[in-house]
Amino acid sequence: MDTIASLFSFITTPVSWVIVQFHSVYGAIFGPDTGWAWGLSIVSLVILIRICLIPLFVKQIKATRAMQTLQPEMKKIQERYKNDRQRQSEEMMKLYKETGTNPLSSCLPILAQSPFFFALYHVLNSIASNDTIGVINERLLESAQKAHIFGAPLAAKFTDSSEKVEALNSSLTDVRVVTAIMIVLMSLSQFYTQRQLMTKNVDTTVKTPFMQQQKMLMYVFPIIFAVFGINFPVGVLVYWLTTNVWTMGQQMYVIHNNPTPGSKAQAAYLERLSKSVAKHGRTRGRGERAIVKAIVAKGRDRNEYERKFINGLNKSGLAAQADGTVIKSESTAAAQAEDVAAGAAAKRQQPKRQTKAQRQSGTAKTAGEPTSLTKSDEPEDAKPAAPAKKGDAKPAGGTRSRAQSGQRKGPQRPKSPSKK
């Protein structure tokens, strides 16, 4: 680790200068030799670095969105070459090259802050070795060695010997308990951040190498931090725990306000947005307008959650516009009211199912039989049918008389004379 840290020695002076400036502020409040002054200086260093990395984080989000737009093409490649893994990977790499996307873009924030991480490690290791470094002179070195965080010296490590820990005015038990708790918290925060990304903010309908990479990082990073964390000074553990908490909060904000299309987070967001738009009759804020504009622009390529959102607006008498605004649509509301009224009328006018006797009675009436205005005591089925005469004429209009109840319908075939 010393060799790796020495490679980033060019940035140790700026990092030590930032820590000293924050220490001068917190030292005036909590005292220059306290763990609060030095610990908060490291926390402030993390916040400053992460604020500077926000443009890179925005670029990471855009790259992730670009990967999401390529998922239909990725799905086609997977189906076309499902039996040829090598050809599938080659076509995926070709697609990335043509569109200018990079599946490793999610690692950019970690790679960008690596120099600061190793520089801070180099500074704290020098403090533990009683060596001045950067702008930290002998007076500041002595003050940093006196600083303790929950009883553990700022420069102590889990693997330090008892003699070295006693030289820093602490006990080995305090150091190992504090470092173990911080390592566990650091690993859990990293795992939760990756798991939140995989379960809520990923479109699970298409399996891509990007998803496999994220799933691998979800388990690999916590293990790496747990293994190498025992060699980190307490100050570095404070740094890494703070940056993990920052990443977790930053990701929760993005998932809540700008989720990945097709993910569970998008379904929850569009449900909240639908209720808000239906209540106020408009989109509020540039972010909401951007989401609605993107959904409208997709047209028929909308996913299930986006189609449900548009249909929900239509049912509320609203219509989403191409610029992301929402207006009241009187035609939509009138058409829906007309459909509802027509459906209710059709439901009221639906005839009741008749019995067999009623259907037979109706058949007899349509055949031209006389009906009376008063109900007959004798059922119609019991009335004998009048015998048909040989010379009777056919009914007017050439229509065939319908068969009486109990007779076979249709024309009767004449009986052939029996041969004797």
> CA-to-CA gap between the ends?
121 Å
Assembly annotation: single chain
Tell me the structural class.
Answer: mainly alpha
Question: From the alpha-carbon coordinates, what is the Rg to the nearest angstrom?
Answer: 40 Å
Low-confidence stretches: 364-406
Strand ordering within the main sheet:
1-2
Largest sheet: 2 strands, antiparallel
Number of helices: 17
Number of strand elements: 4
H/E topology pattern: HHHHHHHHEEHHHHHHHEEHH
Percent of residues in β-strands: under 5%
Q: For the residues shown, what is the average pLDDT?
A: 76
Any idea what the shape is? Answer: elongated
**Amount of helix:** 55-70%
Provide the fold topology.
Elements: H1 2-7, H2 12-30, H3 35-52, H4 54-69, H5 71-80, H6 85-99, H7 108-128, H8 138-146, E1 148-149, E2 152-153, H9 162-167, H10 172-200, H11 209-228, H12 234-257, H13 264-280, H14 286-298, H15 304-315, E3 318-320, E4 326-328, H16 330-348, H17 356-366
Antiparallel strand pairs: 1-2, 3-4
Provide a descriptive summary of the structure in words.
By secondary structure, the chain is mainly α. 63% of the residues lie in helices and 2% in strands. It has 17 helices and 4 strands. The strands form 2 sheets. Strands 1-2 form a two-stranded antiparallel sheet. Strands 3-4 form a two-stranded antiparallel ribbon. A hairpin with a 2-residue loop joins strand 1 and strand 2. The radius of gyration is 40 Å and the shape is elongated. The N and C termini lie far apart (121 Å).
List keywords for this structure.
mainly alpha; 420 residues; elongated
